[in-house]
Write a structure and sequence with these properties.
The protein has a two-stranded antiparallel sheet. It contains 4 helices and 2 strands; from the N terminus they run H-H-E-E-H-H. The chain starts with 8 loop residues before the first helix and ends with a helix. The chain is mainly alpha-helical.
């Protein structure tokens, strides 16, 4: 859902003076900072809008299944994705139905709205983390 240049890491790197030599681990750290902001906001929005008190077996609640990680099958390039787990139930599919709607269920666009409303905050987290990384690199010279 929120991948590498969604929040503009490459654009930010250009703005601070061109291509900066970042390792994959440093890119993961920077992108992870923004992804964590989206993850926290999405988990809260999911709980606020779609929480049900009853528990179905050992399956996690949808709001507890928001994860940050690398997309399955993608190359390791430092990108981070935010989405719903599919480990114990296909929470991504359920969230899509709630967000987009179905023939019988009106969607409420809560995922889209949450990402849009938190994109600036996530980008600021990336900028702050990038500055930390660049400061560490400078101190290491």
């Amino acid at each position: 859902m929120a991948e590498d240049d969604l929040l503009g890491l490459d654009s930010m790197l250009q703005a601070v003076g061109g291509v900066v030599n970042l390792t994959i681990e440093e890119r993961e750290e920077i992108n992870g900072a923004g992804a964590e902001v989206i993850q926290t906001a999405l988990a809260k929005a999911t709980k606020d809008k779609h929480y049900r008190d009853h528990k179905t077996g050992s399956v996690k609640h949808l709001s507890d299944s928001v994860e940050v990680g690398q997309l399955e099958g993608s190359i390791q390039d430092g990108s981070r994705a935010v989405g719903y787990s599919t480990k114990d139930a296909n929470h991504a599919r359920i969230a899509r139905f709630l967000n987009d709607g179905t023939k019988k269920l009106k969607g409420d666009s809560y995922v889209d709205e949450t990402v849009a409303h938190n994109a600036e905050k996530a980008q600021q987290a990336q900028i702050d983390k990038m500055q930390d990384v660049l400061d560490r690199k400078e101190a290491g010279k």
